[in-house]
Design brief:
Helix content is 41%, strand content 13%. The chain is an alpha/beta fold. It has a seven-stranded mixed β-sheet with strand order 4-10-9-8-7-5-6, sandwiched between helices. A four-stranded mixed β-sheet has the order 1-2-3-13. Strands 11-12-14 form a three-stranded antiparallel β-sheet. Strand 1 (38-42) and strand 2 form a beta hairpin. The longest helix is centred in the last third of the chain and has 22 residues, at 410-431. The structure holds pyridoxal-5'-phosphate. Pyridoxal-5'-phosphate (PLP) is lined by residues 61, 116-118, 121, 144-146, 206, 211, 239, 241-242, 266.
């Protein structure tokens, strides 16, 4: 596989950008080697600067759902740009996107737009603290909620990839009010609530965890969290930055039937532009400035380009309703992948939900962060390089999900399986 142009660009980038990248997980540090530089994308395909073509299962870590360079979105962005991308004043496009989001999540009585998932979760936690007058928050090990100080504990994603259990630069006092409980462990949460329930402002959870690889909530897990938080006057925050508009139009709220108090969104709802949102009932959201005393603001928040692009994406999804078909496709693909791996002698788990899956090199089901950390990382690294060499662009980390979009047609996925088969064969040879 030719990589000379990517290698040269990486050398140039490394002289200017930290680690040569703008976000850590894009580096291939944990799997070894240099990242490939992508020249362009179209639909489910990406091409690197050396001309290698890949079927893309990264999908910008779940932000892309309508295929790369979707003409509908390109048109929305260019039309918005012609009239000014950011005006320092409210624009009608904000109302359009907020209405479209509310159709998908009717529980969002009031919404605030921000610029990223990190801002959405950080601000939702602040609103919950302002609303309850309490300080303590609970998160689950392996769930990633962006990189704000108080949420960077056992955060999965890039931190796990780089073996950083907690980030340096976060004073202990900043996480002193953060409690971390194992994902899917109702008993541990019960014990925590029994001891500290009246002090807990919020429980924040990825209702479908996708940052330690994909880990599904066990039956009853979300229901029990809902029950305990309601009983203790604690705000329940669903971080749907990945699951929103992916697993159902109404995200994991619709998928699980559990109604949280606040929802955080990002990724798909911006159609590939930087965007985030949080919202919930009026009682909590009216605490946020200018209506209330919880301060949160943003120069670029609600900018026209992102709003127009997001509205085009969300409206397309509302009309086309790709979810049930995509769910079947993902199930079939994940099943085929598991069989293929086993036929090559690998013990794997391939958990899936609509539009995403993870290939874990593990003989046991993965239901927690500990299970994810116990997977065979050297096997993953060998697999990753074999996949890349066979034209499959997958995340360079065992702790990220692979993403499938409605634009990964049956034909493309059949082709992907052939590439995957070759990758399994090649990785065996790499070991030998
Ligand atoms: N929450 C979840 C569940 C995420 O997966 C991410 C990012 O991957 C974030 C929050 C942070 O979003 P952003 O990277 O847009 O700041």
């Amino acid at each position: 596989m030719k990589t000379s142009k990517s290698d040269r660009l990486f050398r140039e980038a490394s002289a200017l950008l930290v680690g040569g990248v703008s976000s850590p997980v894009r580096a291939f540090k944990s799997v070894g080697g240099n990242p490939v530089f992508i020249e362009r994308g179209r639909g489910p395909w990406v091409w690197d600067v050396d001309g290698n073509r890949y079927i893309d299962f990264v999908q910008s870590y779940g932000a892309v759902f309508l295929g790369h360079a979707n003409p509908l979105l390109t048109k929305a962005v260019t039309a918005a740009a012609r009239r000014g991308t950011v005006l320092g004043a409210p624009v009608p496009e904000e109302i359009h996107l907020a209405r479209s989001i509310r159709k998908a999540f009717p529980m969002l009585e009031l919404i605030r737009f921000v610029n990223s998932g990190t801002e959405a979760t950080m601000s939702a936690v602040r609103a919950a603290r302002g609303f309850t007058g309490r300080s303590r928050i609970v998160k689950f090990a392996g769930c990633y909620h962006g990189h704000s100080d108080g949420l960077l504990a056992k955060a999965g994603s890039g931190a796990a990839t780089l073996s950083l259990p907690d980030s340096s630069g976060v004073p202990a006092s900043f996480v002193a009010e953060t409690r971390v409980v194992p994902y899917n462990d109702v008993e541990a949460l019960r014990r925590l609530f029994a001891a500290e329930g009246r002090e807990i402002a919020a429980v924040i959870v990825e209702p479908i965890a996708a940052n330690m690889g994909l880990v599904r909530p066990r039956d009853g897990f979300l229901r029990e969290i809902r029950r305990m938080t309601s009983e203790h006057g604690t705000v329940l925050i669903f971080d749907e930055v990945i699951s929103g508009f992916r697993v159902r139009h109404g995200g994991a709220v619709e998928w699980s039937g559990i109604r949280p108090d606040l929802v955080c969104l990002g990724k798909i709802m911006g159609g590939g532009l930087p965007v985030g949102a949080y919202g919930g009932g009026k009682d909590i959201m009216e605490c946020v400035a200018p209506l209330g005393p919880v301060y949160q603001a943003g120069t670029l928040a609600g900018n026209r380009a992102a709003m127009a692009c997001g509205a085009a994406a969300v409206d397309w999804l509302a009309t086309r309703k790709p979810y049930l078909a995509l769910e079947k496709t993902t199930q079939k693909f994940a099943g085929a992948l598991a069989k293929l791996a086993e036929s090559h002698g690998y013990e794997v788990q391939v958990p899936w939900v609509c539009g995403m899956f993870t290939l874990f090199f593990s003989p046991r089901p993965v239901v927690s962060y500990e299970d994810a950390l116990a997977c065979d990382r050297p096997a993953f690294s060998r697999f990753f390089h074999a996949a890349l060499a066979n034209g499959l662009y997958v995340p360079p980390s065992p702790f990220e999900a692979c993403f499938v979009s409605p634009f990964h047609t049956k034909k493309i996925l059949a082709g992907a399986l052939k590439r995957w088969e070759k990758a399994f064969r090649d990785m065996g040879e790499a070991k030998a």
